Amino acid sequence: MSLYEKLGGEEAIDAATDIFYRKMLADERVSGFFDDTDMEGQIAKQKAFLTMAFGGPNNYTGKSLRDGHAHLVEKGLSDMHVDVVIEHLGATLKELGVSDEDIAEVASIANSVRDDVLGR
Amino acid sequence: MAFNLAYDGNSYPIEEEVSVLDTLLNQGIDIPHSCKSGVCQSCLVEVVVGEPTEASQVGLKATFKARNYALSCCLFAKEDLGIRPLNSEDAEVTASIIKVEALNHNVLRLCLKPEEEFDTIPGQYINLITPDNIVRSYSIANIPGVDGYIELHIRVIPNGRLGSWLLNEAKPWGSVKLRGPAGECFYVSDKEGGDDFPMVLAGTSTGLAPLYGIIKDALAHGHIGEIALFHGALQPEDLYLVDELYDLSQQQSNFSYTPCVLNGSEGDFYICGDVQQLVVEHIAKLKEARLYLCGAPDLVNAMKKKAFLSGVASKHIYYDAFLPSK
C-alpha cells in the first residue's frame, strides 16, 4: 500500500489541506506570501502540494516547481520558509493522528523538492 | 468502444480509456489544466450531455456538483458526452418588466418575466441588458420557478448609466434581455425531509438579494437547521426589507434576522457595530455551519478569511463578491 493510500487518500488530503492552510495563514513568518485574496486557488495549490508530499498521484516536475515559485523567490522565499512549511505539515499530520514514522516520510518527500522550489 | 464527445459545436470520437481532457488536448483544443490527477481543479468543465461520473466529481463543492461540473481529467466516457467550458456565454432571452418599486432611498426592486424558459437557482446572478446595451450583473432574490418572475435588487447610482435608465425609462411592460445565470452561491439540499446544518448568511447593501433568495429556497426545501441572516449597512437608511424580514423571523422559528449599522445610534431597531465581527463571533459558536457571503468584495474576502481561520471548512464557504462595473 502506498503512503498516500495508507494515510487515507483523497479524503485525508481534504481534511489536511484546510488544517495546513489555516496554519500557514495564521503564521506571520509565511502569511505574507498568501496576501492574494484568491483563497480557492491557493487551497487548490496546497492540496496539490499535500498530495505530492503524501506520495499520491501528481504531475509535479522540477520545472513546474521552479516556474511556480520564481515570483516568490524574488520576494525572498528562502530555506527558513520551507522549514516553516515542513513544520506545519508535521503538526497538521500529528493533529490527524498520523504516526511519527509516516510524518518523517512525508517530510522527506517535501524536502526532496526544496532545491526546485528555491530555484537552486 | 468509442463514444462521441461534443464540444464547441464539433463532435469528436472518445475512447473509454482516454479522459475527456486528453481527448480534447489530443485534438489540439486548449483546455486549462495542471495536475491531471483530479486535485488542482483547474480543468473543470460543465457536462451538458450525459452525466458526470462519480470519480469526476470527487472533492468538488456541493454547488459545483449540482451544476454538473466535472474534472475533465478524471471524466471517462461511458456514454455520449457533451461538455462546455465554465462561464461560457449563454444565449440571451427577452424578458418583460412587470414591476419597478423603491425599497429604500437608493435600492429598487425590479421584477422581470422571461418570455421563454430561463432556468435559474435563487442566489445565482444574471446579466441584465438594457435596450441601450448597458450590461450589469444582478443576483436573484426570489424563487423564480414558484413566483413566475425574477426579482432583482438594484442599487441606483443616479448619475450612472444604468441608474438613469432605471429612473427614467424602465417602466412596466418595457423589455430587456437576460443572459446567464452564473454563480455557485446557492442552497443545496443534502437529504430528504430537511437538512439540519446551521446556515449563516451575511452581506452588505444589495448583497441581501442573493441571500434572501437562498433563504427562501432553503425554507422551501424544508430546511430545519438554524438560518441566521446578518445585513450590514453604513447608515440606518441603507437597510431595506426590514419589516418583511422581521415578519419572516416571527413566522419561522429557525430564522433570525440581525440588521447592523456601522454609523448608527444605540437603542434603535438594529445593532450598532461591525457586521464582520458579529458574524465571526456567531459562527465560532456553531458546528459544521455553512457560510454564505455576498456584497462588497473587501468585506466578503475579509470575512471569508476570518471565518476560515476560526474553523469553518473551506468547502462550506459560499460567496459572491460584487465587483463595481468598469
List the helices and strands and how they pair.
The complex is a heterodimer of chains A (120) and B (326).
Chain A: H1 3-7, H2 9-26, H3 39-53, H4 62-74, H5 79-95, H6 100-112, H7 114-117
Helix pairs in contact in A: 2-3, 2-5, 5-6
Chain B: E1 2-7, E2 10-15, H1 20-26, E3 44-49, H2 62-66, E4 69-71, E5 81-85, E6 92-102, E7 107-114, E8 125-129, E9 135-139, H3 144-147, E10 150-155, H4 161-168, E11 175-182, E12 199-204, H5 208-220, E13 227-233, H6 242-251, E14 255-261, E15 271-272, H7 275-284, E16 290-295, H8 297-309, E17 317-321
Parallel strand pairs in B: 1-5, 12-13, 12-16, 13-14, 14-15, 16-17
Antiparallel strand pairs in B: 1-2, 3-4, 3-5, 6-7, 6-11, 7-10, 8-9, 8-11
Report strand order across the widest sheet of chain B: 9-8-11-6-7-10
List how many beta strands of chain A DSSP finds: 0
Kindly report the CATH topology of chain A: Globin-like
Strand content of chain B: 25-35%
CATH class of the largest domain in chain B: Alpha Beta
**Largest beta sheet of chain B, briefly?**
6 strands, antiparallel
Instruction: Specify the CATH class of chain A.
Output: Mainly Alpha
CATH homologous superfamily heading of the largest domain in chain B = Nucleotide-binding domain of ferredoxin-NADP reductase (FNR) module
Low-confidence parts of chain A lasting 5 or more residues at pLDDT below 50?
none
Question: Which protein chains are joined by the largest interface, and how many residues does each one contribute?
Answer: A-B, 23 and 21 residues
> At the fourth CATH level, what is the homologous superfamily of chain A?
Globins
Oligomer status? heterodimer
CATH architecture term of the largest domain in chain B: 3-Layer(aba) Sandwich
Which structural class best describes the helix and strand composition of chain A? mainly alpha
The domain count of chain A comes to 1
